[in-house]
Amino acid sequence: MKIVSTVEEVRRQVEEWRQQGLTIGLVPTMGYLHEGHASLIDRSVSENDRTVVSDFVNPMQFGPTEDLQTYPRDLAHDAALVEAHGGDLIFHPEPAEMYHEGFSSFVDMTVLTEELCGLSRPVHFRGVCTVVTKLFNIVQPDTAYFGKKDAQQLAVIRHMVDDLNMNLRIVGCPIVREEDGLAKSSRNTYLSPEERQAALVLSQAIRLGSDMVRQGTTECAAVIQAMSDHIAAQPLARIDYVKIVDAATMQPIPVIDRPALCAIAVYIGKTRLIDNFFTEDV
Ligand code: PAF
């Protein structure tokens, strides 16, 4: 397993693999890898001859008041995890390698980015689409792997690939949870022991909502109300949103009469956590 920091080194390696006729999977990450990332690497390793993991805290997708400076980083830990799971290459660039002086091109999207996280994080998806496009252009993978925890991000990337005729397959992988239900996230490390306990309201609300849908409730307002009431009863929790949207357009719907996504974002203290379920999976 190799770690490289320049675009040129990635290109050289990828070119060598291509000449040998090997297939390439890409797992884009911001590092501080956990079992959720490991499941993406496992999937890529099982489906491709070579797996590249990008490990880059992308400044462009953070708003001015967000946690860019404090976002956890640990390359040695990441390298050990990638190696243990059979990854072949880590691309770990400095911001200046990705955004040279005078950088002024962006990939932006309407509609799908206007609700959910796009409302509370206005610059986020422009940063995600731009960096992911760059990573696709640098690595030129056959397939790229993303977690379903960032469900809106996955929908946005699928849509971008389709809109812009990008020549690769996108695979979405299931949410990986802690034993008590909390969805794995690098941001879970911000939580104090008391907050870690309080954070269970997210997965509890997800279970409550998905049970209601499974038992036949189709009225979105009823599901949203029950989930919101449950979260609001936890004093350390502050709801950013609890919404049900069309799974393709990410636009709110009143009735579950098509594939839908129920997504939540909740502050536990200062930490913003997300979770979701797709109605098709309940
Ligand atoms: O999901 C993430 O970790 C990031 O948004 C991604 C896709 C690696 C882009 O920086």
Keywords:
282 residues, alpha/beta, Rossmann fold, Pantoate--beta-alanine Ligase, Chain: A,domain 2, 2 domains, 6-stranded parallel sheet, 10 helices, 9 strands, globular, binds pantoate
Please describe what this structure looks like.
With 282 residues, the chain is an alpha/beta fold. It has helices spanning 7-19, 35-47, 75-84, 95-98, 117-120, 124-139, 151-163, 193-198, 200-214, 220-232; strands spanning 2-4, 24-29, 50-55, 89-91, 143-147, 169-173, 237-246, 260-268, 271-278. The mean pLDDT is 98. The chain is globular. The chain contains ten helices and nine strands. The strands form two sheets. Strands 1-4-3-2-5-6 form a six-stranded parallel β-sheet, with helices on both faces. A three-stranded antiparallel β-sheet has the order 7-8-9. Helix 6 packs across helix 7 (151-163). It has two domains: 2-173, Rossmann fold, CATH 3.40.50; 186-276, Pantoate-beta-alanine ligase, C-terminal domain (Pantoate--beta-alanine Ligase, Chain: A,domain 2). Pantoate binds at residues 28-30, 58, 61, 128, 131-132, 150, 153.
